[in-house]
Inverse folding.
């Protein structure tokens, strides 16, 4: 099957000879707005805490480019994964398996957004940020989606790097370089990804099994997954505190990170100890909390830096 | 003049026409927003120096 004809096996009202029935809302769904919102937030925080004077217009344009680049990666992911999306309840209503958007349309849409966002980011901000955005899209689409996702239960561990790159891109857009601070932000998102996605996978293990995606609960079982979640939570908690320990953030961030990390470990521990009856609820709770964890941790970094600037601790 | 049935090519339904119109409007708005963004970014990149044009040294 050629790449261009990929996804043609799924039910599509918009076949090759038929006019498109896609609405604007279908194209919006293709760029995964919920995933994009978290990306935008982490990029925004990285840009705001980065040193230097970035003009607000350039910052906004850069943020827009990174968000659109993330959306492009989402659209290309949906194009390639249309066959397995059709088999899972959570994803069956996505635009391609639902028949609203033809696979070729999604591919063209994703490629246009990808090329456009990289080129504009290079022209508006700098080519270091543009190169990082290009690599991130490549990593998410080719390394994660096309290769790792269907090949190994470590798919989201390695693939998680794609979701962790945006703060580095934001930092690079603001400074033209990569420093230790954005690498710490990268590590936070990187080690946050496995417990976040495995908690979801525990709730949807049957769907992943039906689609043939080797998620950890499908391959290694629920108990091994819950152990791994606790392990990653134990690694994540101290990494979450690292910006404070390394002197890049103040005590407000430090206290928040310690509390958030402790709750994450507690929820992972409860999931490990939960019996078969309660494990679904525990996994769902951990999944919901993990989103809150990342949001509050990055927000704390922002608040901490703002207070530091006002008190003269950090340069404005 | 309308051709006989079967020679008109694709005939869009009312819903398809509506969706096509909405897509066209969305593309137009997106392109307009891009033009505006590029214009503003260009002005910002040029900076205040663009107003300080050197005086002509030409004798004419």
């Amino acid at each position: 099957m050629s790449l261009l004809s990929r996804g043609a096996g799924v039910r599509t009202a918009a076949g090759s000879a038929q006019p498109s029935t896609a609405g604007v809302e279908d194209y919006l769904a293709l760029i995964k707005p919920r995933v994009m919102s978290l990306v935008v937030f982490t990029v925004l925080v990285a840009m705001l805490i980065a040193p230097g004077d970035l003009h607000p217009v350039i910052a906004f344009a850069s943020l827009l480019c990174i968000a659109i680049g993330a959306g492009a990666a989402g659209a290309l992911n949906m194009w390639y994964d249309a066959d397995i999306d059709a088999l899972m309840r959570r994803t069956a209503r996505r635009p391609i398996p639902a028949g609203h958007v033809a696979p070729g349309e999604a591919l063209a849409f994703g490629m246009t957004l990808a090329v456009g966002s990289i080129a504009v980011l290079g022209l508006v901000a700098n080519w270091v940020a543009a190169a990082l955005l290009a690599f991130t899209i490549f990593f998410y689409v080719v390394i994660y989606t096309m290769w790792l996702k269907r090949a190994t239960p470590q798919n989201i561990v390695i693939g998680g790097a794609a979701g962790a790159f945006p703060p580095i891109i934001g930092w690079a857009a603001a400074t033209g370089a990569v420093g230790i601070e954005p690498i710490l932000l990268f590590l936070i998102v990187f080690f946050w990804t496995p417990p976040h996605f495995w908690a979801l996978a525990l709730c949807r293990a049957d769907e992943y099994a039906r689609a043939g995606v080797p998620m950890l609960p499908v391959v290694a079982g629920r108990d091994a997954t819950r152990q791994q979640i606790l392990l990653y939570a134990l690694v994540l908690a101290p990494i979450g505190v690292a910006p404070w320990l390394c002197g890049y953030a103040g005590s407000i961030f430090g206290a928040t990170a310690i509390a958030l990390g402790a709750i994450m470990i507690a929820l992972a521990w409860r999931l490990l100890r939960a019996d078969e009856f309660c494990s679904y609820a525990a996994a769902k709770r951990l999944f919901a909390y993990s989103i809150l964890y990342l949001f509050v941790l990055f927000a704390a970094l922002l608040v901490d830096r703002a207070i530091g600037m006002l008190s003269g601790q950090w340069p404005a | 003049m309308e051709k006989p049935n079967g020679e008109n090519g694709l005939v869009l339904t009312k819903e398809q026409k509506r969706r096509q119109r909405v897509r066209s409007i969305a593309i137009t708005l997106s392109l307009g927003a891009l033009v505006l963004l590029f214009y503003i970014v260009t002005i910002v990149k040029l900076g205040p120096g663009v107003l300080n044009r050197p005086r002509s040294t030409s004798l004419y």
